[in-house]
Write a structure and sequence with these properties.
The chain is α+β, with helices and mostly antiparallel strands. The protein is 34% helix and 19% strand. Strands 1-30-2-3-6-7-8-9-17-18-22 form an eleven-stranded mixed beta sheet. Strands 4, 5, 23, 26, 27, 28 and 29 form a seven-stranded antiparallel beta sheet that branches. A six-stranded mixed beta sheet has the order 13-14-15-16-10-20. Strand 2 and strand 3 form a beta hairpin. Helix 3 crosses helix 7 and helix 6 crosses helix 9. It is globular, with a radius of gyration of 27 Å.
């Protein structure tokens, strides 16, 4: 159970104990009364007419058979007003919770257990940054966000908490004084910061490197963070006259004390219960092929963003249509929005389609700030003591007293570690590898210090200006013009259009550093590692109609090593990209949507290509019959990690134990291998020979690679027997590798009667880490899905009516609504539904038609 669940369990235990004491009455309450009587009160009205103040004219909302609303309005204001209204109809609890996250106000909902998390959120200051962004909005952006806000509030005006969502019925018992506030534009912008945090990764790797360098040599750490493989593809093969990215550098580090690193680790993990852990499970797939490679002669574009598993889905699918489309109302689009934000984040309009993948840009740096020993309110900047910037914050606590705090920041950013103490210059005298920091960096260490975070997302920008620009763009030039405004989080943006073009653009604010590679915490008091600006947009990698006829941005290296700017050393290592490019190149004929669907559902495990042959070469004499049977299962396996595959269960069990037996003896528990793309490359590089194979926990032997292979295989078989039974015929990967969709708040309470109301699963699931069907799992924790393709979309630019999609759970955020989980099995089985486009088709396949009309003035 995560930290969020621990405090919920304390707060709700009395409720459940009372229900259990009541026996049959309590059982009826949780299993019948709440689902059948309370839950339906919040289901949205989808038929008939509703009069609302604030509309210019009537708006038609057709709900298709999957519950997706298709909105038709005559003005831009009414279009986004209606989008706000339907978001609130279906997902207001989700919206309400995330706006409290964005503002550091979760303790107002759930009590004292969230004070610590709110303290960290207040330090990051998302809400304050969002306020500055809104103040700088251009008139058109302000108009869109204002209209959307009015629509949300129009729904809230006519619905109390019991009519908004089942969760509020529980919350009233936990926090009886909680009041639902009107929606504000800044809530949308703060939510965007939360999404940027969900896509973080560099802060974690900076801390991890610093921790590992305390016990490992720089060479060993370099082996655990290998450079991008030369045999894997880059996204942009040619940009202008050059090709390009920067290789990994051997790490050197400040010797930060254990207690400071522990605080940084802890603070960085405080939000894991809200967003999921960052790391090699967060990413995305996308690819586009030109008409030269397709049966229709027109491009196809695919996208599936990989995010933490969630209930409900992070995505809300919608169609937005101006009738008629004109300069004043220029929207005709369909795709995936975020509940809480207007517009379509990923999708298509009547001219272009676009998709996103995380660009892995290094946009986070940790700075060690020297604090004045005589005045803790000051820190050093280029030889002078300057005052910290401070602001007072108040955390209101449900059922408790307010908490007052002072948040501090430096010229580099928010202070995220208030730990004071000497940085150590002296290591263990027996450690011949230790080099004091003063000798590594030529700088005396401060006696007192804090750690500050520089992060591009903490600077004001206009994140939705780019999205709304994409929504209206009709060609590549307009699309690139909009992409200039996409500051954070940096994305690989894929493009295709109905004129037959495909393109790619790198976006985001990528810092230019005076020196250093952003791999480790650095001294902040000298200014030597400061940022001097950002890579100019005109110099960012892009490609348009490349000669290959395809583009595949898959979190992999963007451009080759002679590119003039530094982007990152922490790329995804390109195993998914390599497989996708291979499948495009080896297509049996002209590519169609069915082939794209096959690609999105591909379960090929590239690590098996390396280690199954090595397993099959080892001594096959086993002491147990099941070990011999399991060994034979691997002989004809095609390396596809299908849910119904026994061989996949055998291999993935072996892989999990192989990582543990190879590295757990030398790494801190927090950094035991997770098993994703980085570890694929680490294991590929050591597959011939390495000192890592020796088990340091044994003193009477030096283990070889084959010793560890055999031990890991036997351990894996033993685990399968314990978990799935002693009959190998019944071992299936999908029985281990399941997707459990848990409500992000009450569904993680640790109280089964309550969790059963909101959670759904398990669903047997194919795929795995660094597999195209990227249903990630953490080998240090088990086989359950942790990150996943949060939606799948395929757009046919030759016939937009032929486009298909699916997302993970359902359109509705209301437990027990028919559309709460009707997509889950489709998603798990790589099935799709039509992205309805033409209005006549939408009308003929609708399950509801709601008309919003202006309220008559009395």
């Amino acid at each position: 159970m995560n930290k969020f669940g621990v405090f919920l369990k304390r707060g709700l235990m009395a409720i459940v104990v009372l229900a259990l004491v009541l026996g049959a009455v309590g059982t009826f309450y949780f299993k019948s009364y709440l689902p059948s009587t309370v839950a339906p009160k919040s289901f949205p009205k989808i038929d008939g007419k509703i009069q609302l103040g604030g509309l210019n004219g009537p708006v038609d909302i057709y709900r298709d058979q999957m519950g997706v609303p298709h909105i038709y309005a005559t003005t831009q204001h009414d279009l986004f007003f209606a989008q706000g209204y339907v978001h609130a109809q279906d997902r207001f609890w989700q919206m309400d919770f995330y706006r409290h996250v964005g503002a550091g106000r979760t303790a107002e909902m759930f009590g004292e257990g969230q004070v610590e998390t709110d303290t960290f959120l207040k330090a990051l200051g998302w809400h304050n940054t969002a306020k500055k962004e809104y103040q700088a909005f251009n008139p058109d952006s302000r108009a869109i966000l204002t209209a959307y806000t009015e629509g949300v509030n129009a729904y809230l005006k006519d619905h109390d908490s019991g009519a908004l969502s089942l969760e509020y019925a529980i919350l009233e018992l936990l926090s009886p004084d909680y009041e639902i506030e009107p929606w504000e534009p800044v809530n949308t912008l703060a939510w965007a910061k939360a999404l940027a945090w969900d896509l973080r990764s560099n802060i974690n790797t900076e801390i991890e490197r610093a921790v590992l360098l305390k016990t490992l040599t720089p060479k060993q750490v370099s082996e655990l963070f290998p450079a991008y493989p030369d045999d894997h593809p880059v996204i942009v093969n040619k940009m202008g006259d050059g090709t390009s990215v920067n290789p990994a550098m051997e790490p050197t580090a400040v010797d930060i004390p254990d207690e400071t690193l522990s605080v940084l680790q802890y603070n960085a993990s405080l939000l894991d219960g809200l967003f999921g852990s960052a790391g090699d499970g967060v990413g995305s797939n996308s690819w586009a092929v030109s008409g030269e490679l397709t049966g229709t002669g027109m491009p196809l574009l695919a996208n599936d963003p990989h995010l933490g598993i969630a209930m409900p889905s992070i995505w809300y699918q919608v169609g937005l249509h101006c009738k008629p489309k004109n300069d004043q109302c220029p929207h005709e689009l369909a795709g995936f929005s975020l509940a809480g934000a207007p517009g379509v984040i990923i999708g298509h309009n009547d001219h272009i389609a676009w998709g996103f993948t995380f660009a892995n840009e290094d946009v986070m740096d940790l700075f060690i700030e020297k604090v004045n020993p005589d005045n803790p309110n000051q820190y050093e900047a280029n030889g002078e003591w300057v005052d910290f910037e401070t602001r007072k914050e108040t955390i209101n606590v449900a059922g408790g007293d307010p908490v007052e705090l002072t948040v501090r920041s430096t010229r580099h950013g928010a202070v995220i570690s208030e730990v004071y103490g000497p940085l150590k210059n002296e290591g263990d005298p027996r450690d011949k590898e230790f080099v004091p920091f003063k000798d590594r960096a030529g700088i005396d260490l401060p006696q007192n210090y804090v750690i500050a975070l520089s992060w591009t997302a903490l600077s004001p920008s206009d994140p939705f200006d780019a999205v709304w620009g994409f929504n209206k763009a009709e060609n590549w030039e307009q699309f690139r013009e909009a992409a200039k405004n996409f500051h954070t989080p940096g994305q690989n943006v894929l493009y295709a259009d109905t004129d037959g073009n495909i393109g790619y653009q790198t976006t985001g604010d990528i810092p230019i550093r005076k020196q250093g590679d952003g791999a480790l915490p650095v001294p902040g008091w000298t200014g030597e590692y400061d940022w001097t600006g950002f890579i100019p947009f005109e110099e960012m990698p892009y490609t348009f109609n490349p000669v290959e006829g395809y583009i595949a941005p898959v979190n992999n290296k963007i451009i080759g090593d002679d590119y003039e700017h530094f982007i990152t050393i922490d790329w995804d290592h390109g195993f998914r990209a390599d497989r996708i490019v291979e499948m495009i190149k080896s297509a049996p004929g002209k590519i169609d949507i069915a082939y794209f669907q096959k690609m999105q559902g591909d379960d090929y495990d590239p690590s098996a290509e390396i280690y199954v042959p090595l397993l099959l070469q080892m001594d096959a004499r086993f002491s147990k019959q099941n070990e011999a049977i399991a060994f034979d299962l691997l002989k004809d396996w095609d390396y596809q990690a299908k849910a119904d595959s026994s061989a996949a269960a055998v291999y993935e069990g072996f892989w999990s134990h192989l990582l543990k037996n190879t590295f757990n003896d030398e790494l801190p528990e927090r950094y035991w291998p997770s098993g994703g793309d980085r570890w694929f490359e680490v294991m590929r590089k050591i597959s011939a020979d390495s000192l890592w194979w020796d088990d340091k926990s044994t003193t009477d032997a030096v283990e070889t690679r084959d010793d560890i292979l055999k031990r890991s295989f036997i351990d894996g078989v033993s685990e399968l027997e314990d978990t799935l039974g002693r009959d190998p015929a019944k071992w299936k990967w999908g029985d281990l590798h399941v997707a459990n969709f848990r409500n992000g708040t009450l569904g993680q309470s640790g109280l089964p009667p309550l969790e059963a109301l909101f959670n759904r699963g398990p669903f047997p699931t194919s795929g795995g880490k660094s597999i195209v069907n990227a249903t990630s799992w953490n080998s240090a924790e088990g086989y359950e899905v942790t990150n996943l393709p949060s939606m799948r979309m395929i757009v046919d630019l030759g016939d937009l009516n032929n486009s298909v999609s699916v997302h993970t759970t359902g359109q509705s955020g209301h437990a027990y609504h028919p559309h709460y989980d009707d997509m889950a099995e489709m998603w798990a089985n790589i099935q799709y539904y039509s992205m309805l486009w033409e209005q006549s088709t939408v009308m003929s396949q609708s399950e509801g038609h709601l008309v919003l009309t202006p309220k008559e003035i009395e």
